[in-house]
């Protein structure tokens, strides 16, 4: 499935602590065990995720996902495509699932 052409999307990495966004999909670059882990954590289309805080070095980043606090590395968070509530950030469209 592709993301909607008129819906501005970004990735979890773009969220500042306290900001939330809705998942539109996971990049096809994320495969195997990494993809399974994200899906098992509840990172599926429609889930609202909040950036909670960044570690002192900026990596990993803590996110609230379905009531749980989960740490994701920058690379993992960059695989998760999200739609921002204000639609202010847009990246080139990429197929997501």
Strand content: 25-35%
Which CATH architecture would you pick? Roll
Beta strands, count: 6
Low-confidence stretches: 1-6, 88-97
The CATH homologous superfamily name equals Ferrous iron transport protein A (FeoA)
Listing every helix as H and every strand as E from the N terminus to the C terminus, the arrangement reads EEHEEEHE
Largest sheet: 6 strands, antiparallel
Task: Supply Rg.
Answer: 12 Å
Strand order of the largest sheet: 1-6-2-3-4-5
| Count, helices | 2
What does this protein structure show overall?
The chain has one domain: SH3 type barrels (Roll), CATH 2.30.30. With 97 residues, it is of the alpha+beta class. It starts with 8 loop residues before the first strand and ends in a 14-residue tail after the last strand. The longest helix is centred in the middle third of the chain and has 9 residues. The N terminus and C terminus are likely disordered. It has a six-stranded antiparallel sheet with strand order 1-6-2-3-4-5. It is globular and about 30 Å long. 15% of the residues lie in helices and 32% in strands.
Keywords:
alpha+beta; disordered C terminus; 2 helices; single chain; 97 residues; disordered N terminus; SH3 type barrels; globular
């Amino acid at each position: 499935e592709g993301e909607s052409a008129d819906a501005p999307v970004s990735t979890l990495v773009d969220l500042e602590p306290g900001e939330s966004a809705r998942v539109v999909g996971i990049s096809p670059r994320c495969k195997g065990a990494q993809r399974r882990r994200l899906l098992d954590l509840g990172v599926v289309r429609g889930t609202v995720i909040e950036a909670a805080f960044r570690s002192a070095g900026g990596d990993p980043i803590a996110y609230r996902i379905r009531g749980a606090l989960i740490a994701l590395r920058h690379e993992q968070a960059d695989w998760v495509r999200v739609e921002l509530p204000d639609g202010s950030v847009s990246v080139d469209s990429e197929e997501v699932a």
